[in-house]
Amino acid sequence: MADHVLEVTDATFAEQVLQSELPVLVDFTADWCPPCRMIAPVLDAVAVEEAHRIKVVSVNVDFNPETQTAYGVLSMPTLIVFKGGEPVKSMVGARAKAKLLRELAEVV
Q: Could you say which of 2, 25, 26, 33 is catalytic?
């Protein structure tokens, strides 16, 4: 788990994500997923560098099936940006930091 990415569960999702003042980038991840491990350091860097603009959290789908099902997440990693409690952008698969920052710039 990345040092600056908060782990969120089914129980804490509403408080940490839906009620957040800042937009939230949610990483739907799994321990068995190699691309998830590849993107973890990218998400950690974004969490540090963009902390003033966006909160970065992760949801382990193996332990939090309610949240995964609620947002129709089928592939890992899936990244969903929430703003004002609503999903505003969804991205599937690992990506380079520069590409992720460009995609986030559209919604943050």
A: 33
Residue 43: pLDDT band by 50, 70, 90 thresholds? very high
33 is catalytic: yes
**Which residue in the list 26, 36, 73, 81 is annotated as catalytic?**
36
With 0-12 / 13-18 / 19 or more C-beta atoms within 10 angstroms meaning exposed / middle / buried, residue 83 is middle
Is the CB of residue 8 less than 8 Å from the CB of residue 16?
yes
- pTM greater than the 0.85 cutoff: yes
Q: Is 16 a catalytic residue?
A: no
- The parent domain of residue 15 ranges over 6-100
Cis bond upstream, residue 77 (ω within 30): yes
CATH number at residue 13: 3.40.30.10
